[in-house]
């Protein structure tokens, strides 16, 4: 038997409602902040991601689904959306249409990571990118949107961590200090961190190795190396969040796994899921648009992992959706009433009632059981003596009350059921 590929998941009908619930909350929040939806292709030229996210990052060096298509072009399934959104922004010259763009998305992403709870190879993100302003208000709003969506999903057990990576010149100075600090400790670092010392020194902060962590606990902090403007920007963002009653924790070790960040970075960490606890990550990327060939414009954004968030919701039992219901189930009392039942179902559906009928020629008892299982508010029993009088029995499944209704007056049934909706 062929099974789904490890790290990919089917979303079955019983789970779709949760997904739709989340998606509708995302859309509602994005509309409140006047973000417009954007959809980009599932795959792009590989160079977009290697230039955008950074050659030395784990995503680009180890995790992308990259292949050469029949024309010899190297393409990759998108591992994230920021690079794609920026590509679309530049390609369609959106900067000429407006000075400031606020875009959001909900989309599958692909990373060939080792699958585990909360870590998939095809996963889904919702996210937002605000392109064109360097105002700290935008950084704050991006974090507020992410926070609001998680709160609206009923989540409580999470923490927002925030940091500033400053600008490249101040960061280079800081990296120099970090190199000095680690110089005589290099032999004690894990093999991975030794490699990172050369390729991407800041990422040593992400090491899970105990010794690495102890060593990094004593490392100098990047916040001491920020230039004045970056420091002021960071203070402003924190101030705005505090005024908005969004609590954040400063974590100078938060370096993020993508190379494009400048200034603000943040992550939202859940305490209700396992090791893969980052529900959301983002920050400012003021240089990316120019780096990908556009005019220099500042930008900031975030993305959140839907599977992880739904896992947190499940563990915190934060979502209680009403059971699904039918308006009416048509029970066929005699086998020969098929055409009549079909015609009535068509009429009721045309008039907006969620209507179900029996397709399996089941007994009356089995049809009633099915109506119950489907939480039908009403049952219409068609056939028997009533049918000879051109009538049928309408049963209210909650109260058990029954009444005779005339089949020529289906409008009456619709009104009756609509009135209790
Ligand atoms: P990221 O931190 O790589 O950032 O991903 C954002 C979120 O996607 C993570 O916090 C996590 O919830 C989810 N995620 C990532 N990888 C996986 C996986 N393998 N399985 C399940 N969930 C996963 C970005 O993608 C940036 N584009 C965010 C951004 C937008 N920065 C600025 N604008």
Parts with pLDDT < 50 across at least 5 consecutive residues: none
Please identify the top-level CATH class of the largest domain. Alpha Beta
Q: How much β-strand is present in the residues?
A: 15-25%
**Biggest pleated-sheet summary:** 8 strands, mixed
- Count of distinct structural domains: 2
Round the Cα radius of gyration to an integer and report it: 28 Å
**CATH fold label of the largest domain:** BirA Bifunctional Protein, domain 2
How would you explain this protein's 3D organization?
The protein is α+β, with helices and mostly antiparallel strands. The chain folds into 2 domains: 245 residues, BirA Bifunctional Protein, domain 2 (2-Layer Sandwich); 94 residues, 3-Layer(aba) Sandwich (Rossmann fold). 39% of the residues lie in helices and 22% in strands. It contains 16 helices and 16 strands. The strands form 3 sheets. It has an 8-stranded mixed β-sheet. A 5-stranded mixed β-sheet has the order 13-12-14-15-16, with helices on both faces. β15 and β16 form a beta hairpin. α1 packs antiparallel against α6 and α6 packs parallel to α10. The longest helix is centred in the first third of the chain and has 20 residues. The two termini are 45 Å apart. The model has no long low-confidence stretch (mean pLDDT 96). The site of histidyl-adenosine monophosphate has 28 residues, from β6, β10, β11 and α12. The site of histidyl-adenosine monophosphate (HAM) has 28 residues, from β6, β10, β11 and α12.
């Amino acid at each position: 038997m062929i099974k789904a590929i490890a790290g990919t998941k089917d979303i079955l009908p019983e789970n779709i409602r949760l997904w739709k619930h989340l998606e509708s909350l995302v859309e509602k929040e994005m509309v409140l902040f006047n973000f417009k939806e954007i959809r980009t292709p599932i795959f792009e030229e590989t160079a977009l991601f290697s230039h955008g996210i950074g050659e030395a990052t784990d995503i680009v060096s180890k995790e992308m689904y990259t292949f050469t298509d029949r024309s010899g072009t190297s393409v990759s399934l998108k591992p994230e959306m920021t690079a794609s959104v920026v590509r679309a922004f530049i390609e369609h010259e959106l900067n000429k249409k407006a000075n400031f763009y606020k875009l959001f998305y909900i989309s599958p992403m692909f990373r060939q990571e080792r699958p585990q709870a909360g870590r998939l190879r095809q996963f889904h993100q919702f996210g937002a990118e605000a392109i064109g302003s360097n105002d700290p208000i935008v950084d704050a709003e991006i974090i507020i949107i992410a926070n609001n969506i998680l709160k609206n999903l009923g989540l409580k057990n999470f923490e927002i961590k925030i940091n500033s990576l400053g600008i490249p010149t101040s960061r280079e100075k800081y990296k120099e200090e970090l190199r000095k600090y680690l110089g005589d400790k290099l032999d004690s670092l894990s093999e991975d961190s030794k490699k990172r010392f050369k390729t991407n020194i800041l990422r040593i902060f992400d090491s899970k190795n105990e010794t690495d962590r102890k060593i990094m606990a004593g490392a100098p902090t990047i916040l001491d190396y920020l230039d004045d403007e970056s420091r002021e920007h960071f203070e402003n963002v924190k101030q705005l969040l505090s005024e908005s009653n969004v609590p954040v924790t400063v974590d100078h070790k938060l370096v993020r796994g993508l190379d494009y960040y400048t200034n603000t970075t943040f992550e939202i960490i859940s305490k209700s899921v396992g090791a893969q606890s980052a529900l959301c990550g983002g920050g400012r990327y003021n240089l990316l648009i120019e780096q990908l060939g556009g005019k220099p414009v500042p930008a900031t954004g975030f993305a959140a992992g839907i599977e992880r968030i739904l896992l947190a919701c499940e563990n915190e039992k934060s979502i209680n959706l009403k059971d699904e219901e039918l308006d009416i189930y048509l029970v066929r009392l005699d086998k020969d009433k098929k055409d009549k039942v079909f015609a009535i179902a068509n009429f009721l559906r045309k008039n907006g009632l969620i209507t179900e009928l029996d397709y399996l020629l089941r007994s009356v008892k089995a049809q009633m059981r099915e109506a119950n299982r489907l939480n039908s508010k009403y049952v219409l029993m068609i056939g028997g003596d009533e049918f000879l009088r051109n009538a049928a029995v309408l049963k209210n499944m909650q109260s058990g009350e029954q009444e005779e209704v005339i089949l020529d007056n289906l409008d009456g049934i619709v009104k009756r059921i609509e009135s209790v909706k």
